[in-house]
Amino acid sequence: MAHHQERSFGSLLCLMLALLIPACDRHRPEKPDRGPVESVLAIEKPKPAQRFRAYQITTSKELQKLQESLGSQRFDEALKLNRIDLRHARQGDSLVLPVSAEPWLDLAPFPSKWKELEDQPKLIAVSLRLQAWAAYEAGRMVRWGPVSSGREASPTFTGLYHTNWCQKERRSTFNDEWQLKWYVNLHNWNGISFHQYDLPGYPDSHACLRLAADDSEWIYRWCQSWILAPDQRTILREGTPVVVFGDYAWSAPGPWKRIIEEPEAGRLKPEELAGALRIFQDKVAPLQATE
Q1: pTM summary value
Q2: Cα–Cα distances in Å, from 179 out to 54, 88, 168, 172?
């Protein structure tokens, strides 16, 4: 009899637990709907702005010490960050350097991803204000570097160019003593191009876009040239698009020189990117010389 009562009590206890468990489940908080990956990424904290420091070149030995401490690659990147080449790193100058060893692409004034360019296989953007260029593949930045654009008396006009044709070395039509390496023509009639030449830290060319030696060779090998019809006049396919945008402030120091106090001074603003995008989408052609 006692054994029968124990079985009855056990059965009753199991029945009560079975009734309670679903009720408890109904009161458990549901897992939050995280939504698509994009919405998760959108709320992630942005990367903190890089910090910079000044390095005073008091003697030629100081420059040599900097090169030895940074190593060859990072030293070259430091010069590029200041929009100069080694020839123009002079005694008395103050260089802007990253506080930590940041990857070169993370120091770019351009966005690492440009969503509106995802359908564009290749594109080069050139900011005159920041004297910098960046190459994009399907909206992802793959390289960037400094430029020296046209001086005030012979400016590089904003607009949509294309990489028309290339030549490893070409004599300048402005001065036949100038040999221009890794020449990439951008405006066939005006002779505007990318090419290797001095980087003094400000716009100093005759409307061309000067590049560092390694950057000029990289663009030469990376870009696409135009395809012409047999008549050599009709363009069947344009080369890689090159968007030149913005305005250089001639009366003020380059913005990259202020990034120690104002880290955002060396970055592109949303309205600048929107302006560059309009030039590309509306196919705004650069002005032609009237000489």
Answers
A1: 0.82
A2: 35, 19, 10, 6
Q: Pairing relation of β-strands 123-127 and 241-245? A: parallel
Residue with tokens 């506080």: 99
In a domain, 166, yes or no: yes
238 lies in some domain: yes
The count of domains in the chain is 1
**Within-domain flag for 40:** no
Q: d(Cα 130, Cα 109) in Å, to the nearest integer?
A: 8
Work out the pLDDT band at 175, boundaries 50, 70, 90: low
Model confidence pLDDT, tens digit, residues 211-237: 999 999 999 999 999 999 999 999 999
Q: Is residue 182 in some structural domain?
A: yes
3-state SS record for the chain? CHHHHHHHHHHHHHHHHHHHHHHHHHCCCCCCCCCCHHHHHHCCCCCCCCCEEEEECCCHHHHHHHHHHHCHHHHHHHHHHCCECHHHCCCCCEEEEECCCCCHHHHCCCCCECHHHCCCCCEEEEECCCCEEEEEECCEEEEEEECECECCCCCCCCEEEECCCEEEEEECCCCCCCEEEEEEEEECCCCEEEEECCCECCCCECCCEEECHHHHHHHHHHCCCCEECCCCCCEEECCCEEEEECCCCCCCCCHHHHCCCCHHHHCCCHHHHHHHHHHHHHCCCCCCCCC
Q: Sorting pLDDT into bands at 50, 70 and 90, what band is 157? A: very high
Segments forming the whole domain that contains residue 230: 103-282
Is 260:177 a contact under the CB 8 Å cutoff?
no
- Tell me: the pLDDT tens digits for 85-128? 999 998 889 999 999 999 999 999 999 999 999 999 999 999 99
At 174, which CATH number? 2.40.440.10
